[in-house]
Fold this sequence. Notes:
The protein is of the alpha/beta class. The protein has helices spanning 15-26, 40-47, 63-77, 100-128, 149-168, 187-200, 204-215, 224-234; strands at 6-9, 30-34, 53-56, 82-85, 131-136, 174-181, 246-249. It folds into two domains: 6-182 and 223-248, 3-Layer(aba) Sandwich (Rossmann fold); 184-221, no CATH class. It is built from eight helices and seven strands. β4, α4 (100-128) and β5 (131-136) form a beta-alpha-beta unit. The structure holds nicotinamide-adenine-dinucleotide.
Amino acid sequence: MLKGKTALVTGSTSGIGLGVALALARQGANIVLNGFGDVEGPKAQVAALGVQVGYHGADMSKPAEIEAMMGYAADAFGGVDILVNNAGIQFVAPVESFPVERWDAILAINLSSAFHTTRLALPGMQARNWGRIVNIASVHGQVASAQKSAYVAAKHGVVGLTKVTALENATTGVTCNAICPGWVLTPLVQKQVDARAAADGVDNGEATRRLLGDKQPSMQFTTPEELGELAVFLCSAAANNVRGVAWSVDGGWTAQ
Ligand code: NAD
């Protein structure tokens, strides 16, 4: 379905980003990976699906490195047809003691990076009159949780950016939508399970049940594979007129 297209997925060496990259590769899209940590493993997983795979290690908190990454995608792959803004980090603390440096980093990585990749990808998409921008926002793009001021502010910002980008391109073949997951068991969330286990003096299983029980009525984690399949749908022709939505995949979290 996506043969001949190129998808750039930020923060795709792990977790949700890798799940989305693999799902798009299964549909035939060539993939540009980005992110830290082990790169060879994710590259091999994508290559095994028979598509071309590239990698750029740009730090999403640095606009100049983001520009270099987009330049690499243009030179090596002829541009970006599908942009998945996924890179993100978390930090928890009350507003009055939230470290300023963490606030700045979360806003830069979770929100501003999506502005930079989007502004740089749009001209090519508009020229080809086809493009898909999928922003991995969060349930925290729609509702709040205590201790997550920077993350919630950034994710609400991502939903806003999604709507504006969708509107500005509404008469074209370029769509922009957000996916809003609740809890997904990735390294980012395992840290929060560990913190809950330590705080409550319970084991991993009980900490997981408490974490889910607080917010996610299904009592199940969403998987990166499920989110990958939703991204595939948003990239399909059937989603031509799906524009500017913030699509919850949260086990009922925001239905409460
Ligand atoms: P993760 O920690 O498994 O993966 C994050 C990825 O981003 C990694 O590839 C990491 O190397 C990369 N990354 C981090 N900082 C970066 C930077 N400065 N520059 C480039 N890459 C960077 O996390 P995840 O849970 O897969 O999260 C992915 C996205 O999904 C994030 O935007 C997160 O906010 C969002 N999300 C996660 C959940 C969840 O429950 N896990 C829920 C809702 C939304």
